[in-house]
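Cystathionine beta-lyase, Gellertiella hungarica. Tokens?
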Amino acid sequence: MAEKGQDIGINTRLAHIGPQPSERHGFVNPPIQRGSTVLFPTAQTMRSEGQKYTYGTHGTPTTDALCDALNELEGSAGTLILPSGLAAVTLPFLACLSAGDHMLMVDSVYAPARRFCENVLKRMGIETEYYDPAIGAGIEGLIRPNTKLVHLEAPASNTFEMQDIGATAAAAKKHGCVVTMDNTWATPLFFRPLDHGVDISIHAATKYPSGHSDILMGTVSANAETWGRIEAANRDLGLCGSPDDAYQILRGLRTMGVRLAHHMESAIAVAEWLEQREDVARVLHPALASFPGHDIWKRDFKGASGVFSFVLKADKPEDHTRKAQAFLDALTYFGLGYSWGGYESLAVHVYLGDRRICKGPTDGPLIRLQIGLEDVKDLKADLEKGFAAARAA
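Tokens:
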């Protein structure tokens, strides 16, 4: 494999990251090493834990192969794999926050993360304050003496607002805050949070790293400054991903660059087509020049994934749900389902009722699309059926 830092293409890197075939008798893929119990050669080794593997929850050669690959992609000091994306979001909060602390969370965050803060952290005596994603360096005005963590997500969940990540992180770090970011939409192929001042990069590997809608996994990649705290907290919590799932995610990484290129090309084509339609009020996609956060996306990101939203035109608020449901029920190739990042296209009517600052569109129902690997002409024809049904509703 080429040495780290050498200027090689992303697909070449994805094809060769992680432990090398020479380390496993020439076999291209690592074996799946399952296990809970690990034996020690002597009592002293057991007492001192003086060997690489000590118990299944602390890692296996298979899970380490995935972590090594992700460390290279993220530029991180260490990576943990966890049972879900939500587990990956919440672990840094539990690791870095204590009773009496204050955290700042972007208001356009993944909804289950907000629910965790309101239901779990609040009960623990930790206060969460929500901020506008456009705040940038102005977040310094919200930082209190007890503010310990600032959480970012860009583009925003469902509405895709961009954040000036570098400016926000720099302001937070001036006051000693840990900065975390959910980077699931972009993946480390299109954006590397740690290069922009973020301490902890979070992903739902369920999405693009898996690519096939059959694995649940989250990853947490930390810089050297915060890695020890994250690793120690996870040992206390006992969270881990299975070797079988790690193998599948590592396998998915090999084709993620090729898949993302297709997702991006198709999604932009569909988004541009939607922008021209009279029955669409507006399209929320950072890669479109018309989108308010486009300049930040163009400056900081290397690409766009296949998820975006649009506002279905509806004059009366009382018509929103009916028209949205008629639109969705008429679709064939777009499945009605949560999550995204798989090979299949999906659509969902977005709920934004828990927002406090970023209230979202009011000129019609918000429909989120995941553009899969199908042919664009077939997806457009499917959406045409949805629009016809919405007009008739």
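Residues 190 and 302 are 4 Å apart (CA to CA).
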